[in-house]
Amino acid sequence: MVVQLEQQLHHARLDLEQTVQALEQANEELKSANEELLVMNEELRASNAALETAKEEVEHHRQVLEQTNDDLENLLNSTQIATLLLDHALTIRRFTPAMSRLYNLIASDVGRPLTDITHRLCTSLPLPDIHTLQADVVPIQHDVQTTDGRWYICQVSPYRTHAGINDGMVVTFTDVTALHESEERYRRQYAELETLYHTAPIGLALFDTELRYLRINERLADINGLPPAEHIGRTLEEVLPGVTDSVAPLLRQVILSGEPVLDIEVGGSTHKDPGTQHVWLASYYPVKNAAGTVEAVSAVVQEITERKQAEAMLRESARYKDEYLAMLAHELRNPLAPLRNAAQVLRILDAPDPRLGELRNIIDRQVDHMARMLDDLLDISRIARGKLQLEKEKLDLAELVRQAAEDFRATIEQQELILTVRIPQGPLWIQGDPTRLTQVLGNLLRNAVQYTAAGGKICIRVGIDNDDDAVWIRISDTGVGIPPTITEHLFEAFWQGDGLNRGTGLGLGLALVKGFVELHGGVVQVTSVGEQQGSQFHIRLPLLERPSLGAVAAADPTVAGQTMLRILVVDDSRDTADTLRLLLEHEGHNVTVTYSGEQSLEVARDYQPDVVLCDIGLPGALDGYDVARAFRDDPLLREAYLIAITGYGREQDRENADAAGFNDHLLKPVSMDELHSALAQRSGV
User: Fold this and answer.
1) Residue by residue, what is the 3-state secondary structure of 83-97?
2) What CATH number was assigned to the domain covering residues 79-180?
3) Which of 147, 295, 534, 619 has its CA 20 to 30 A from that of 401?
4) Would you say 108 and 64 are in contact if contact means Cβ atoms under 8 Å apart?
5) Which residues contact 50 (CB under 8 A, 6 or more apart)?
6) Do 612 and 600 meet the contact criterion of CB atoms below 8 Å apart?
7) 177 in helix, strand or coil?
8) Radius of gyration (C-alpha) of the chain in whole angstroms
9) Which residue, 590, 532, 597, is CA-closest to 561?
10) Closest residue by Cα to residue 175 from 203, 154, 204
């Protein structure tokens, strides 16, 4: 029993061991399986992380593609270049809004053949075969024009996929209307310049920096005696060895300095006339590139050989003429001396016959006249040759004019003429030759006397122009006047005026006036309304020093008979006119009053006012505007300073006064400050 139990226990122990072993084995298998599960879990986690990363990359790429698509949409919508994308069948893939200027496209036209769409091109669009387009070849382009006259450059390029396959074409239209118009304009200008270049009456050429001919026109080629083609590519020395020594240094000077050489006389011989020495007037200009480097030299050449020969002949002729005039003057002065001496003897001798005195005066006048003509001949000759020398000194022009007026006063009064002189009181200093300036004044006064009938007026005025630092002299008369057709000839030597009443003399007086004035740095002008309207000669000379305002404000009382300004008051209101006269006289002015427009003109011609204070609303035939216009039309009155006095102050009233010829415009009632300011504008006149 015990043995049986022991056996059972042994078997139970064996079974238990086997069970334990089996459990241990199962546990090992479970551990192994658990480890495998852990590995699989890690792999799943890694795969999940990889999927998350791939998902993020896909989302990023989607966003990038979406952004790229938005950029492309905005680019296509905002570009001003008309762009059309076509597939391989030439159906519309996409287009920019600018395409609507050329094709009648709407959004729903995508996918339609291009040939179904109407357009505004003058001709159908010539598209190439898609198989002929290559990416590495310059895009096909040509000009097209729309029905409204605009020009475009049409450019066709292949539509390439990412795989490099041609899957259509890209067509762009660039508006080049402005460029096309500029090219057309430049083309016309170039054609015009080419025409001028080849037809110009002067020689033109272009040299490179090695002095080779690049271009030459027919005129210069003809001067050189060779066809234009035989110049191109050849050097100056090869073509014209006879002028190289004089021209080549000038061309090199332009190349080195970059500055033009202008109006140079060059001489030499040519193939056309090798035995003759020619003279040309030449100018050379640098032709620079964008960097400022001289790349070529342009030549402008004019043949002046005949002109130089003519100048030489004229100089020789002038020399002979001067010698003849000098001899003539000498020979004519010889008989003048005994004539004058005889006249003096007759004057000394006590002769009872009164006719002898008259004969003496005639002889004196004619001798003086002939001597003056001889002097004029010699002076005009010296001026023409530039040989006349002025003996300049600092002198008072006011005193010189005053003395000249006094010297002529007796002659003027003998001819029953009225002389009026207006000269500032203070000195007017200039640098001048007193003898020649006295001669100028004498010639002008002598003309005024000669061409003014008895009872006429001669007026001499002197004043300054502060703006130009100049002094002016005006000599006017009421004589026969000057027709407009002959005014331009008055200052020509030996011209005596077929349209005038010719007097004695050689026609040199005014030519000498012009010559002497210009030698002093001045100018002389003449004005005349016309025949029987008098004339006015105006001389301007540079001041040596500007006088003070007070020195020229008052005129010389011994000559002009006034204290400060001669003022004419014109007003139909006697109280207004008379009280204004009292105020102005209290200021030291010389004042005359009239009460109508007609009366003012009659008085003014004798009174010769410096300033006119004129009411606009005058009764009668002439209002203030008419008075102003009459003053401006009268050669003896037009220099008066006119001040309009009125109760109307609109801008239109001021414009009307200016148009009539008034210098200033004052509103009633006028204060003395306003008068002082207005009169100050006329100071020195």
Assistant:
1) EEEEECCCEEEEECH
2) 3.30.450.20
3) 534
4) no
5) none
6) yes
7) helix
8) 53
9) 590
10) 154
CA 300 to CA 599: how far, in whole Å? 67
**Is the Cβ–Cβ distance between 561 and 609 less than 8 Å?**
no
- Which pTM was predicted? 0.41
DSSP 607-665: H--SEEEEESS--SS--HHHHHHHHHHSTTTTTSEEEEEES---HHHHHHHHHHT-SEE
User: pLDDT (tens digit, 9 = 90+) per residue, 641-673?
Assistant: 999 987 666 677 788 889 999 999 887 777 777
At what angle are helices 597-607 and 624-633 packed, to 10 degrees? 30
The label of the residue with tokens 């309304």 reads 529
Q: 396 has which bridge partners?
A: 429
Give 430-478 pLDDT, tens digit per residue: 999 888 898 889 889 988 998 898 888 898 989 887 666 889 999 988 8
Q: For the domain 393-552, what is the CATH code?
A: 3.30.565.10
Neighbours of 450 (CB within 10 A): 18
- Name the CATH superfamily housing domain 562-680: Response regulator (3.40.50.2300)
Beta bridge partners of 267: 279
For 553, 563, 684, the CA distances from 425, given in Å and listed in that order, are 8, 10, 9
Grouping H, G, I as helix, E, B as strand and the rest as coil, residue 492 is coil
Of 3.30.450.20, 2.30.42.10, 3.20.20.70, 3.40.190.10, the CATH number of 200-303 is 3.30.450.20
C-alpha to C-alpha distance for 345 and 300, rounded to whole angstroms: 70
Q: How is residue 226 written in tokens?
A: 């060779």
Residue 504 has pLDDT above 80, yes or no: no
Distance (Å, whole) CA 58 – CA 63:
9
| CATH fold match for the domains 79-180 and 200-303 | yes
Rounded Cα gap, residues 358 and 364, in angstroms: 10
- Tell me: the pLDDT tens digits for 197-241? 888 888 899 999 999 999 999 888 888 888 999 999 999 888 888
Asked if residues 261 and 254 have their Cβ atoms less than 8 Å apart, the reply is yes
Tokens describing residue 575: 């109280």
Closest residue by Cα to residue 477 from 514, 525, 444, 512: 444
Two structure tokens written together for 144: 């097209």
SS (H, E, C) 242-279: CCHHHHHHHHHHHHHHCCCEEEEEEEECCCCCCCCCEE
| Sequential DSSP letters for 372-406 | HHHHHHHHHHHHHHT------EEEEHHHHHHHHHH
Select from 418, 423, 368 the least CA-distant residue to 557.
Answer: 423
Residue 457 near residue 420, CB atoms below 8 Å: yes
Tokens 């004089």, located at residue: 246
Domain ranges for the chain? 1-78, 79-180, 200-303, 311-376, 393-552, 562-680
